[in-house]
Amino acid sequence: MYSTSKQIVPTATKDDEDNTDDLNNHKDLLYYEPDKDHFSKIIADLAEIGKNFYSRGWVLGTSGNFSAIISQQPLRLAITSTGVDKASIMPDNFLEIDDAANVVQGHGYPSKEALMHLAIVRCTNASVVLHTHSVPSTVLSNVYASKCGVTFEGYEMLKGLEGIQTHQQCEWLPILENSQDMIELSQTAATIFREHNYIHGFLLRGHGLYTWGSSIQQAKRHVEILEFLMEVLIRSPQYAYNTIHGTA
Questions:
Q1: Between vectors from CA 98 to CA 92 and to CA 103, what angle results, nearest 5°?
Q2: Which H, E and C letters describe 118-129, residue by residue?
Q3: Does residue 2 register a pLDDT over 80?
């Protein structure tokens, strides 16, 4: 399915110093060839995560998408093809895309949300982006939309988020208004990153959770921690009281 791909710039001659200088300025375009073993390992791991998340009710049906950087220069992502049932997701259901979300390798095409994945890896140090559609994230993103986010504090599980060392951490999970215009939505997310560069994820209203990490394991852990915290909140008696009285 995935063949070796190369981007080759003509070689400069000894008599063509200008061409040599131009080549040196575009080294990222020279002989790009992905590591097929590395790519295969990444998509196998992401497919396993997809099935695991499906079994936990976080990506039912064809919801959710996952990506990982396979090359920094030039930027390339492995990402789920759109319309894939996560209960039966396989490595063949992943594509390689470039920095404009164009398909480089693979069959099918990515969700429009690929633009959000690209925005996240550009604005953070993330190598992996995971997007889920759980019941808690959908409910909370609607109930707390007027507050533009949800705060978690006092939970031991917060220490599962990268860089947090105490349960007393006040963790802010922003909520963005959902939109079908992914260019505009990606720009909104970039603004959020500039204003809150310490966050570990965000919610799209009525949609779901985006989180990320420097590795597949870290990003998976962030999903598990944030999904846990959201479920704890919607199960709490205080949440029910606040919802009934309009103070959530």
A1: 45
A2: HHHHHHCCCCEE
A3: no
